[in-house]
Amino acid sequence: MNQQAILNVENFSKQFLLHEQGKVIPSSSHVNLEVYSGSLTALVGPTGSGKSSVLKGIYRTYLPSSGSIHYTTSAGEVINLVDATEHQILELRRGEIGFVTQFLHCLPRQTTEDIVAQPLIQKGINPTKAIDAAQTMLAAMKIPERLWGISPATFSGGEKQRVNLARGLIAKPRLLLLDEPTASLDAATTDTVVGLIEALKQEGTAILAIFHHIELVERMADRVVALEPPVMTDSISEKIA
Amino acid sequence: MHKVLEVSGLSKRYGEGCPSCFEKTGPEFDTNICPDCGSVVAAHNLSFDLYQGEILGIMGESGSGKSTAVKCLFFDQEPTGGSATFYDQDQAYPLFSLNKAQQRRLSNHRFGMVYQNPHLGLNFDISAGGNIAERLLMSGVDHYGDIRQRAIDLLSRTEVLTQRIDELPKNFSGGMQQRVQIAKALATNPPLLFLDEVTTGLDLSVQAAILDLILEIQHQEKTSMIVVTHDLGVIRLLADRTLVMKYGRVIESGLTDQILEDPQHAYTQRLVASAL
User: Fold this and answer.
1) Contact: A109, B261; criterion CB under 8 Å
2) pTM confidence score
3) Could you tell me the fold of the domain covering A1-93+175-184+205-241?
4) Domains (ranges, CATH) in chain B?
5) Is the dihedral angle over the CA atoms A77, A81, A82, A87 positive or is it negative?
6) What is the percent of chain B with per-residue pLDDT over 70, rounded to a whole number?
7) Which of A32, A61, B170, B254 has its CA 20 to 30 A from that of A86?
8) pLDDT confidence of B184, banded at 50, 70, 90?
9) Is A27 in contact with A230 (CB distance < 8 Å)?
10) Scanning every residue of chain A, which has its alpha carbon at the shortest distance from the alpha carbon of B262?
11) Cα separation of A57 and A227, whole Å?
12) Which chain B residues contact residue A19 at CB under 8 A?
């Protein structure tokens, strides 16, 4: 591929400074990766190698400790997400960067179709149209129609995960971060989800993903980046001097 | 998205004051009382901005200065220092250098305030409808029928039974009083709303309904809000960005999910770790 990466992570590290315990816990260290439009980069590595921390660092749920994260916006502007303003990040979250984790976090007391429609409504799409699109998406995710009008609070793990994916995919983000989105799905449902993610990729979305199953990496990834557990000084952590 | 409010260096001190007030108070000293002169530094050097349709959370324990901040902005209290600019309809208003009449005009027309204690926000000697009418009258609406209709619309919007429009607020439950307060604050469609511990002390189900109402208002009217609370749940639910205060200082600020998942300051880490 001779195109430019839309996301370029260089020398990214994340440590947690825990004041109460007086410890520094390293999470990710010296991560380098690139993500391209219409292409999927998979992050692999053992538990504790800081895969999720990279995604959260890109999304600003975590503050990166060092390194740079250059993102090229739809307007062609290159922003270093490490020092972008909070309003810039909020704007990108609304319009360009999506994040789907293993767990569904949503406002309580909302119906499933409202939750899925929300990213479209935030983008300014008319609510009736957004609900229509949400219903199409829920049908594609094989969520039974009788569940659309109720809150996902009582749904099974697999159903919640698909609602989460539906919400993450519906607005067709330019950059999609996926953290084990298929962890609790059975084989048939996983195939459905893989199909939807593939379709989004075909439309040009750049994807950075962590998969629970290694066969999904083989099946879907265009690039693979392997992370090593961070270098530990002494035993598990470093005492603050 | 345009900027609605810009606050810079806002400070509020109670007492005589001396040169060391600001140097010898704050989280590092574990106090907001000046050891030399005994003045209380309620807030010092607060700077933040707020955009249209955005909800900013101010979180901290009681006495951290979070209410002082919004009370200064709503002109309930006079700040000791700093500046604040309110941007509205192509005009910029330097809040703390306006005269009293100009300040009253803004707080009556363009700002709304909902207090934790309904006695501060409502006049308990007049009816629920009368409270709303009072605010509309102050903002220049003087047709009886229009006022009555607007009061009915607002009360039904905030789910207060409109048959009770002529009752005194003291006959209402705490949650109902809070709804009347919100209806009153919304009467003039203000672009900026201050919410000071509005759900504190209410039943959980009532809290939920009030929080849903606040989100609905934000959604439909694109109202900018500053939400002051000690409740992490309220912050998580409502705020896009959050400031954490302690002993009158902002010790940390950031996107709400970052503050909750990757808090930087020792105090915030302890606070987040103690959440139920």
Assistant:
1) no
2) 0.91
3) Rossmann fold (3.40.50)
4) 1-110+192-205+223-276 (3.40.50.300), 118-189 (no CATH)
5) positive
6) 100
7) A32
8) very high
9) yes
10) A62
11) 15
12) 265-266, 269-270
